[in-house]
Write a structure and sequence with these properties.
alpha/beta, Aspartate Aminotransferase, domain 2, 13 strands, four-stranded antiparallel sheet, globular, binds pyridoxal-5'-phosphate, seven-stranded mixed sheet, 410 residues, 2 domains
Length: 410
């Protein structure tokens, strides 16, 4: 495993100016901080080349190329082969757009299976298709294990199943779902998968080719970048749909046919700033070209930083018999450090209120995993307390949080 020295970690933290402030950022599953390369990328773009794309003059040609390069980088980041990367303002917006496309493409009688563990971004858009005559079938969670078992999915699949929508990692539970095995099962039934990778992407290198998925979405603002999102689609899945952009945009003008209004140009510059940050992380150990192995190396560094933090936090929560971890109660790498819990007598709101006063950012509630909270018998508005460190957090911050939690929980 990659070894991270104290010096290395200090150098990582120095890339994020906001970390020098008073707030301790432990609500990263809501949105992460950005390295200076991302902010600089956006600033430079806006101050030196803020023009519209596709005109013939040099500056416009430069901007067109930059936006194309951002798409190419995201494709490499996702290991997207010859699939297409569609950029948009958020995963919620991209999945609404995708569901809109399917509403006119599905054959009558088609069914859509949706995991109960999903974030509403990958639930609501499919539920809305019921009014077009495409019923939703719940892939139910087993409340004892907080997982959606594959056997449950197997029972739901039939020759009417068109799509199966599920999260790679639930933004509340933190466990990593076996996307490859799930996709194999779904493909064997002749259906397609729509995977929500939002809670996975900040912690592990994505690899849509290895997983053989059809659609995979993640939000760039939770992966140290600007407030945007990406949806990768494999070519044959895209070919089944009519892109929603203007009638005069040719069907084969991809990804633009699926990017209504285009992607944020300055956001694309920010996304390329994230590429520079990954190169920095990859080069902590040795210097190399920027390629897939650099991306994997950068994520290995992040994993090495995160594992001790999740281990300590879980050890602390397990040491209290008045606390129940919602999700896996181990700290193996088969989970990410998005850790939720409930207290036996105090509400989640009471606990976060005390933590909020200390300047540590965490959160409570259903986090838009509304159906999951209901399935667990939790009152969704109070939901869970969620702590979500990432690689730039320190053990000192976790220890400080633990001290505050001791006060909050008594
Ligand atoms: C797992 C998961 N999926 C989807 C979303 C929605 O992402 P966006 O805010 O980009 O619409 C979130 C946001 O919190 C999330 O955590």
């Amino acid at each position: 495993m990659t070894e991270i020295t104290r010096d290395d970690h200090d150098r990582i933290r120095a890339q994020f100016p906001s970390l020098a402030g008073d707030t301790v950022f432990l609500e990263n599953a809501g949105g992460s901080q950005v390295p200076v390369t991302v902010a600089d990328g956006i600033r430079d773009y806006m101050l030196s080349s803020y023009v519209q794309l596709e005109a013939g003059y040099p500056l416009s040609r430069h901007c067109t190329e930059l936006v194309d390069t951002a798409h190419e980088f995201v494709r490499l980041l996702m290991n997207g082969g010859d699939g297409e990367v569609i950029l948009g303002p958020s995963t919620s917006a991209l999945l609404q757009m995708l569901a809109g496309c399917y509403s006119t493409a599905l054959t009558p009688g088609s069914e859509i299976v949706v995991a109960q563990t999903g974030h509403e971004a990958n639930v609501g858009p499919w539920k809305k298709l019921e009014r077009f005559g495409f019923p939703l079938r719940w892939w139910e969670m087993d409340p004892a294990t907080c997982t959606c078992p594959l056997e449950g999915l197997e029972e739901l699949l039939n020759d009417r199943t068109a799509l199966v929508a599920f999260p790679h990692v639930s933004n509340l539970l933190g466990d990593i779902v076996d996307v490859r095995a799930t996709t194999e099962l779904v493909h064997a039934a002749g259906a397609r998968v729509v995977v929500d990778g939002v809670a996975y992407a900040p912690h592990r290198a994505m690899d849509v080719e290895a997983w053989d998925v059809d659609w995979y979405a993640y939000s760039t603002y939770k992966v140290y970048g600007p407030h945007m999102a990406a949806l990768w689609g494999r070519r044959d899945a895209i070919a089944e749909l009519a892109g929603p952009n203007h009638f005069f945009v040719p069907d084969d003008e991809l990804p633009y046919k699926f990017e209504v209004g285009g992607a944020s140009h300055e956001g694309c510059a920010g996304i390329l700033g994230f590429k520079d940050y990954l190169a920095f992380l990859a080069n902590l150990g040795d210097s190399r070209e920027f390629d897939r192995s650099a991306i994997e190396s950068a994520f290995d560094t992040m994993i090495a930083c995160e594992l001790p933090l999740q281990a300590r936090l879980i050890e602390y929560l397990l040491s209290r018999d008045d606390v129940r971890i919602i999700g896996p109660n181990h700290s193996d790498p088969s989970r990410v450090p998005t850790i939720s819990f409930v207290h036996s007598s105090k509400s989640s709101a009471e606990i976060t209120e005390v933590v909020d006063r200390s300047g540590i950012g965490i959160r409570h509630g259903h986090m838009y995993a509304y159906h999951l909270c209901e399935a667990l018998g939790l009152e969704p508005d109070d939901g869970v307390v969620r702590v979500s460190p990432v690689h730039y957090n320190t053990m000192g911050e976790i220890e400080t949080l633990i001290e505050v939690l001791e006060t909050a929980m008594g």
